[in-house]
Design brief:
Blueprint: H1 3-22, H2 27-41, H3 46-56, H4 60-68, H5 72-78
Helix pairs in contact: 1-4, 2-3
Length: 79
């Protein structure tokens, strides 16, 4: 069993659930933005946080698409 692959699959499944909820629950994006703001203030991983800020600025449908994406960039962002 490849534990790294299992972790990626679990992360993708989790983000697919969130993506399905985004359109009907815009408060989820606001909560994510608030968390992101706290992490930025703490100086955590600025490169990834800048990319997440860009993603969270997208319309909900486009954000949901990114969360479900299986590209290398999306896998990296879900980590």
């Amino acid at each position: 069993m490849d534990l790294h692959r299992l972790g990626e699959e679990r992360s993708l499944a989790y983000h697919r659930v969130i993506a399905a909820r985004l359109v009907g629950e815009p408060a989820l994006v606001e909560a994510a933005r608030a968390t992101l703001g706290r992490w930025i203030a703490q100086g955590r991983a600025p490169h990834y946080l800048a990319r997440w800020r860009e993603w969270l600025a997208l319309p909900p449908a486009a954000l949901a698409e990114r969360l479900r994406d299986e590209s290398e960039e999306a896998r990296t962002m879900r980590r």
